[in-house]
Write a structure and sequence with these properties.
5 helices, binds adenosine-5-diphosphoribose, 176 residues
Length: 176
């Protein structure tokens, strides 16, 4: 059964096989964790994103694509696009859960043994943090028995608020 870890850190420092980027549908970078990953990882990541754009256009909300990780300590960056919070009646919950499932499925295809997630959609996209954390942990928990390669799943909280929320919710997921 994969090990689940909650840490407070900058995801660009995490040496997991794959780190997940909270990207936007253009795949051309942005602020927040997207900005940090492109800044630290270097132009190779953007070049690969542009090749993906040429092949399939951008990336739809809830979907995920993978690139190399350039100068980052990870091997891959899995770019997924979270939903923008619009009040909760536009399938935001379903789309956010799909980000975690799509990223895990892609990491499995890439034979990753470890994957690190940021708190997708809880920054610029304004998803309420507590709801987002519950969705993230529930979506990942449901996937655990499907995983054959992944042994470690790390939730990387950048701010203390998210870190405390995840820690608190994890106490209810005693079987994680
Ligand atoms: N490491 C880990 N987490 C980070 C980092 C980092 N270096 N920088 C920011 N975060 C956290 C934020 O604190 C937030 O909790 O990532 C979470 C997601 O916030 P955003 O990066 O703003 O992502 P999101 O809310 O999904 O919005 C995506 O923002 O940057 C643009 O191009 C991106 O348009 C897209 C949108």
């Amino acid at each position: 059964m994969p090990n689940i870890e909650i840490i407070q850190a900058d995801i660009t420092t995490i040496k997991a096989d794959a780190i997940v980027n909270a990207a936007n549908s253009s795949l051309l970078g942005g602020g927040g964790v997207d900005g940090a990953i492109h800044r630290v990882g270097g132009v190779e990541i953007l070049d690969e994103c542009k090749m993906i754009r040429e092949k399939q256009g951008g990336c739809r909300t809830g979907h995920a694509v993978a690139t190399g990780a350039g100068k980052l300590p990870a091997q891959y960056v899995i770019h997924t696009v979270g939903p923008i919070w619009q009040g909760g009646n536009n399938e935001e919950e379903k789309l956010l859960a799909e980000c975690y499932v799509s990223s895990l499925e892609l990491a499995e295809k890439l034979k990753c043994t470890s994957i690190a997630f940021p708190n997708i959609s809880t920054g610029v996209y304004h998803f309420p943090k507590k709801e987002a954390a519950k969705i993230a942990l529930t979506a990942v928990k449901k996937q655990l028995h499907h995983l054959t390669c992944i042994q470690q799943i790390i939730f990387v909280c950048y701010d203390q608020e998210n870190y405390l929320i995840y820690q608190d919710i994890m106490t209810y997921f005693s079987d994680l």
